[in-house]
Write a structure and sequence with these properties.
single chain; five-stranded mixed beta sheet; two-stranded antiparallel ribbon
């Protein structure tokens, strides 16, 4: 039996998923983690990255080698939406009489 060790970023200890073969696909790993942790895929998705290299696995068909360690983060279903607009507020320091910061 092969295994992958996973840990949620907020936890201290690793849990283990077992499987047959030399590697497991990302979608199969997510499915097993959802089952073990009693999570519902409709409520959230899982962001999985390699614990050593910090590389994030994004392709559902990506193969994760046996004996790997991964970090799992729960994210909203549908992923995190990036905003295209940035708001930058200009901040001016008030001039105070007698202040050395004029």
């Amino acid at each position: 039996m092969s295994c992958v060790h996973y840990k949620f970023s907020s936890k201290l200890n690793y849990d283990t998923v077992t499987f047959n073969g030399l590697h497991i696909s990302l979608c199969d790993l997510k499915r097993q983690i959802f089952g073990r942790e009693k999570l519902k895929p409709a409520n959230c998705d899982l962001q999985i990255s390699n614990a050593q290299t910090k590389e994030e696995y994004t392709d559902e068909n990506a193969l994760i080698p046996k004996n790997s360690s991964v970090i799992v983060r729960r994210i909203p279903a549908g992923g995190v939406k990036a905003t295209s607009k940035r708001h930058v507020l200009a901040h001016k320091s008030p001039k105070i009489l007698g202040s050395p910061f004029r």
